[in-house]
Amino acid sequence: MQTMDGATPEIVEQVAACIEHLPDLPKKILALHYYEGMTLAEIALSIGLPHAQIAELHDRVCRELRAVFQHAA
Question: Taking all residues of the chain, what is their mean pLDDT, rounded to a whole number?
Fold first, then answer.
């Protein structure tokens, strides 16, 4: 069985496990952005860090997760 984006349950589990092992700040950024719907600018304001730093962390984590996803597919 696959999700709408073509991911199998195994891949979804692998990505979820990777997220679980992230440091707190990147994990919080992903949760606020993807589950709470906040923009990166809003996250930066709420956390008290520069927008550029939040954007860089978000980009880096997404690249790492994408690499895991592509490797597992």
Answer: 87
Write out the two tokens for 45: 């304001």
pTM confidence score: 0.79
Dist CA 38 CA 32 (whole Å): 6
Domains of the chain, each with CATH number or no CATH? 23-72 (1.10.10)
C-alpha–C-alpha distance, residues 19 and 59, integer Å: 14
Q: Angle, nearest 10°, between helix axes 51-72 and 9-20? A: 140
Per-residue pLDDT of 45-60, as tens digits, reads 999 999 999 999 999 9
Rounded Cα distance, 12 and 3, in Å: 9
d(CA 7, CA 12) in angstroms, rounded, equals 6
